[in-house]
DNA sequence: GTGTAAGGGAACGAATAATTCCGTTCTACT
DNA sequence: AGTAGAACGGAATTATTCGTTCCCTTACAC
């Protein structure tokens, strides 16, 4: 609480966090919702980003960067090949990079730099996939693009609060990993299965 | 092309088909989009349904009915238990009932009757699940609610035209079925994996 | 004290969309 | 042939939503 500059620096982060939370929950959310969530006025947003689009581009760029980081970290893992691959998958699901990247596509105009980051991210993912197949732990008829779509399917799950959502995503990640691994096998599923009430509650929620 | 009455009857169906297509593609689509897709004026819609909400309720009801039909048909299958269960899963994915039901939730106010249909649908799904587990062909740590969420994940896939989308949905259904079946095994995946171009194209599509 | 960066939030203006309304067309029946 | 009215097309209406701008206030730095 020392000085306007410190407050501003704190707001930088507050706004980004709020934007992440709001836009991952609803990619079409109004910018006022971000300001409210951050507890700041609208002009605090416009002081930092010239437009909504610029903010979305920033978020997407951060998401791609995060994706790249997680993947590079997994590529550096020299241990058990399957565990390295599985850890990578869990890492991407945890980071929820899909909600910050492809799910936002269409709400803004992608920049050249975003394109370059996306290419790099794709290359790293392919490398990760290649390694697991070469080590004989990942079924070879699944391609890197398949993995990308599997991530999207898992990211489509949204139920209850953030923690419950994460728990369920890991549950289904574990399930699908059972059919990706060589040899296939059933492993214990983490987290409790959804309750009927959790599912039926959604009928009354405004979209 | 005989008479206004025949034309009107034809329009009944045209409008429903258009509504299904439009709202499964975008649950928040404007009603004018339905009219345009159907090739009729807006008043042709309002003559049949008092409001947008009424149309959505009708679509959802039809979707639940379809779900119930497919499930009852599968329950009537007395052949190989696994094949019956797998056929049921494929049937639901093909019918795309998820896009007409839970995906529309929040865009309208559910009626009592819809609630009853949903309960019935749930009961039938549970029966289907129970049978497969009892026959020892479905892993028992997966619950009916799990199956429901798996359907939703698969229904979240939307890539290219309708046929391509269907193809990919079956690809990932097959994949996840590998980890549902007792014993687990890898079976051939149907349909070609997504191309990189198919995935990257979405960056420019308006949401 | 005062200049100025930072911020709050009302006001503006441009969509977007549900619904209504009015004039037109075509059929069925006299 | 003439006409009542069902079925329609689509413009006009009205409400609402949102991105963006603007103006005024605050509080720190000097």
Structure description:
- The structure is a homodimer of 207-residue chains.
- The first copy, chain A, is mainly α and 207 residues long.
- The first copy, chain A, has 2 domains: 1-48; 56-203, Tetracycline Repressor, domain 2, CATH 1.10.357.
- Helices cover 68% and strands 0% of the residues of chain A.
- Chain A has 10 helices and no strands.
- Chain A has helices spanning 3-25, 31-38, 42-48, 52-75, 81-95, 97-100, 112-134, 144-155, 162-180, 196-200.
- In chain A, 36% of the residues are buried.
- Chains A and B meet through helix 7, helix 8, helix 9 and helix 10 of A and helix 7, helix 8, helix 9 and helix 10 of B.
- The structure holds a DNA duplex (30 and 30 nucleotides).
- Chains A, B: It comes from Nonomuraea turkmeniaca.
- Chains A, B: Residues 30-49 bind DNA.
- Chains A, B: Residues 183-207 are annotated as: Disordered.
- Chains A, B: One of its GO terms (molecular function) is transcription cis-regulatory region binding.
List keywords for this structure.
HTH-type_TetR-like_transc_reg (chains A, B); Tet_transcr_reg_TetR-rel_C_sf (chains A, B); 207 residues; Tetracycline Repressor, domain 2; globular; DNA-binding
């Amino acid at each position: 609480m020392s000085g306007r500059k410190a407050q501003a620096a704190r707001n930088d982060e507050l706004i980004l966090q709020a934007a992440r939370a709001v836009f991952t929950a609803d990619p079409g959310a109004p910018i006022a919702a971000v300001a409210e969530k951050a507890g700041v006025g609208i002009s605090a947003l416009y002081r930092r980003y010239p437009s909504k689009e610029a903010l979305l581009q920033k978020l997407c760029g951060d998401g791609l960067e995060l994706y790249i980081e997680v993947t590079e970290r997994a590529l550096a893992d020299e241990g058990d090949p399957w565990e390295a691959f599985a850890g990578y998958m869990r890492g991407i699901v945890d980071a929820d990079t899909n909600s910050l990247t492809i799910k936002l596509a269409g709400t803004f105009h992608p920049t050249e730099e975003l394109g370059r980051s996306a290419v790099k991210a794709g290359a790293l993912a392919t490398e990760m996939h290649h390694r697991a197949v070469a080590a004989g732990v990942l079924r070879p008829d699944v391609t890197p693009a398949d993995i990308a779509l599997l991530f999207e399917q898992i990211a489509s799950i949204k139920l209850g609060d953030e923690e419950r959502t994460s728990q369920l995503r890991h549950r289904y990640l574990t399930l699908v990993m059972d059919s990706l691994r060589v040899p296939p096998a059933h492993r214990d599923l983490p987290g409790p299965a959804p309750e009927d009430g959790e599912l039926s509650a959604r009928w009354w929620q405004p979209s």
